[in-house]
Design a protein that fits this description.
The structure is a homodimer. The first copy, chain A, is mainly alpha-helical. In chain A, 71% of the residues lie in helices and 0% in strands. The longest helix of chain A has 27 residues.
Chain lengths: 215, 215
């Protein structure tokens, strides 16, 4: 292993340890000394990679952003209608949050103690939901009289709640809970002919357990 | 004003200042010195009423519990069906959270840093939603095939999300947002004849702006 490979590996270990610490103790109470110790490196090695705790948090948040955006992007199969893409995206993001502590910690940090000046990950999700529902409206998938911005707010609130509750009890992140939610909401918003073709559990290529190319 | 009246008043000011500090800075970062200063009392006076920060937080949480439980209880008019009682309860609680910083801070503390050994306020709300939906099922208000526990989870998640989002932007606590949510969800769960009589904005005696007897 070259020196550079070792540095990349150490940095990766530090990001994972930091995510675990932020998830468990929150940003304020997480300790740099615990982060370096659980990554198996010296405090000096941590400071070689990161100037301070804020820099570590910013990196966790940025890594979460990269993986969650990629996950959302992969769920956007162009041959699918906007409602199926929305359903699939929610399952893809929940799956990533279930299996990836960096994504979970970064999402939480972005909400509670954001270290970037741009929109939070949470705000990006709001934009994504609103946009897909506006597309669903353009594609004439929605029941007559459905205000797509109102529906978007309800979906944003519910999915935020699932993420929030999942922090205490991971069952809320489960594909089952999310599928049940879509079964509940889709009949209120989709036209009958659209509804019949929709898969509330996500379409086959993106359901839980499927190996993501960026796994 | 007697000595005892003054003590009650001071204690009340301290609880309000503490709630503001916990809401703004979170439990860990809130400072007792700021709490006493903004209540206009000396640090000694604070310590006369509360042993430490944990005791202050426990009192804020307990006060929030009392007012939120009372609010929920008042919304339970026995002449209404279980779905209307659920809708009304959600509006009553959102109203209390909108106008009462102690309720907001206590709800947040109960979630993030609970100081009582019993169920959190959030868990009490989950129990309330589940129970009212089970009653709605017993009262044959729900569409055939509706699994009331699944619906309860979706409603718990969504309302948790509204509370969470409301911390950043109070518009999420608004009666309008909550009414829109019920308009979205009720047609998926209520039988048509039940649905026609339901008021998603809460029934007249308990809507936003109405003076609560404990307001």
């Amino acid at each position: 292993m070259t020196k550079q490979e070792r540095a990349v590996r150490t940095r990766h270990s530090l990001i994972c340890s930091a995510a675990e610490a932020f998830e468990r103790h929150g940003y304020v109470q997480a300790k740099l000394s615990d982060i370096s110790a659980s990554a198996g490196v010296s405090p000096g090695a941590l400071h070689f990679h990161f100037e301070n705790k804020a820099a570590v948090a910013a990196t966790v948040e940025a890594s979460a952003g990269v993986s969650l955006r990629r996950e959302a992007w992969l769920a956007q199969r162009p041959d699918m209608n906007a409602l199926q893409r929305l359903t699939n995206t929610s399952h893809a993001l929940a799956g990533r949050l279930r299996r990836d502590v960096v994504a979970r910690a970064g999402f939480k940090l972005s909400y509670e103690a954001p270290h970037s000046s741009g929109p939070t990950l949470h705000q990006e999700w709001q934009v994504c939901v609103r946009q897909l529902l506006a597309e669903a409206s353009d594609e004439a998938l929605l029941l007559e009289g459905t205000e797509h911005s109102v529906v978007a707010d309800g979906i944003v609130a519910a999915t935020t709640g699932f993420e929030m509750l999942g922090r205490e009890d991971p069952a809320w992140f489960s594909a089952t809970a999310l599928t049940a939610f879509w079964r509940l909401i889709l009949p209120s918003i989709a036209r009958p002919q659209t509804l019949r073709a929709l898969e509330p559990g996500g379409s086959p290529t993106r359901v839980e357990g499927h190996q993501s190319p960026i796994g």
